[in-house]
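FORM 7B: Structural annotation worksheet

SECTION A. Query
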Amino acid sequence: MKKCFLPLTAAVLCSILTACSGVKYQGESLPPLSSDTPVKFYLASELDKMPGVAVLGTAEYTARPSLTSKDIRSILQSAARDEGANGIRIVFMEKIPDGEARKDQINNTGAPQWNVSDNSDTSLSYMKNTINYSDVRDKEKTIYKTFVKAEFLSVPETLQNVEPRR
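SECTION B. Predicted structure
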């Protein structure tokens, strides 16, 4: 039994890490940048006016429904730093249906911010929320995950702080 435990544990751990691997990148990798190095997002129109910008490769990322656009940007920036890129251009973005959730599940995403003390104000608000959650007219809503395709860029330092010509 002990002989099977270690390989089985390793296989399960490997599959979990693969499922949560995050950003899939194909392209050239440069030495990783430090965590404090800024990674900027660029529009295609800005890049047209910036000579010397090189596309290192393409990254794809599918974000869970609970992630915000700020979270997605942060994940892409971190992955770009790991590949030595200091710029990102979003090529494609799509919302993909990922199931359905009840209204109370969607509204409950900020639960840690709720005030749980019991006074007349919170009791009234709790009663209103209970009535809203029990509303059957809009029982389930589609939730979406976000698919992002981006190019990781190498932007010369001389162009990073220069405002592109309009």
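SECTION C. Observations
The chain has a mean pLDDT of 75. Residues 2-19 form the longest helix (18 residues).

SECTION D. Sign-off
Analyst initials: ____
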